[in-house]
Amino acid sequence: MYSKEEVTQLRKAFWTTFGQYLRPIPGSEGEKVNWINYRTGFKGMNFRMDANKQEAYIGIVFSQPNPDLRILFFEQLLELRSVLHGELGEEWIWEQAARNDQGQPISQVYQILPAVSIFQKADWPQLISFFKPRIIALDEFWSTAKYHFEPLG
Hints:
Blueprint: H1 4-22, E1 45-51, E2 55-62, H2 67-79, H3 81-88, E3 93-99, E4 105-114, H4 124-149
Antiparallel strand pairs: 1-2, 2-4, 3-4
């Protein structure tokens, strides 16, 4: 069992390490990218990465308070499903109606890596190997897909 301070320090250490590992990698359009806090340019639409004591998560999350707008964004992404999966090289999980950790309604498209812990440094290479190709593939996908969302935003 870790203290609250140890949990905070381990999380910070992992994300700092991951950020340094990806820092030299430019975005698909050659620009510098903050891979940890990736900006899509649309309010309420984020690329999220998270890890806890039992799994890792990467996903596209729609958290717009207006349910009609949230569903519209989700459906727009659904139209690009084959392009997204082609770029990722794998199928992801699609949930139009879900809830975040605070109980707020969201829509999400995501992938999980089970049986890993951010608190076990021995798992960090596996976590990095999970996150790195997927966030880079999301960036590659987003370089062309973002234009499909402009009429919504």
